[in-house]
Amino acid sequence: MSLIEVKRLIEKLSLAPHPEGGYFSESYRSQETIQQQPDRFHGEHVYKTAIYYLLERNNISAFHRLKQDELWHYYVGSSVILHILDPTQGYKQRLLGCALTDERASYQVLVPQNVWFAAELKDKTQFSLVGCTTSPGFDFSDWELAKPDTLIDCFPQQAELIQRLVATAVA
């Protein structure tokens, strides 16, 4: 897909720059709200939200964490490498992409709540359109962008990766 076609896709889906990098737009927000939600959440939350998320060329999704599980869905383009830093299980890497053309890839990847994670394109000359679904529904009060020094203190063996995939993200 050419740069012009990517720009058309950004316009068609009303994608806007995301603070962690890349582009996004909310595609679904349930109408009902959760009456008794876990204590880790602040304010009212809906049951579920979904977004389109696009990375192009050298965009990244910088290390961040959410208070809820996030299910990533592959749609089209390059596979996406998800880097997960779990305080109990250490570093994990998952590949989101077309399972028919890449046997290591999965069409869906679950990122558990409260783990640090980042994403980048496998092929940095391309783009990728994915979706992300959270339940309870996403609110920016659930989102925390990583501070590099703090994250490196917790995961010193991943210092180079962390320095490469922190808040230098530019959409």
TrEMBL record:
Question: What are the residue boundaries of the DUF985 domain, all occurrences included?
Answer: 8-146
Which superkingdom, per the lineage?
Answer: Bacteria
SUPFAM superfamilies in alphabetical order? RmlC-like cupins
Recorded hits in PANTHER family, A to Z, give: DUF985 DOMAIN-CONTAINING PROTEIN (PTHR33387:SF3), RMLC-LIKE JELLY ROLL FOLD PROTEIN (PTHR33387)
* Name of protein: DUF985 domain-containing protein
Which organism does this record belong to? Vibrio caribbeanicus ATCC BAA-2122
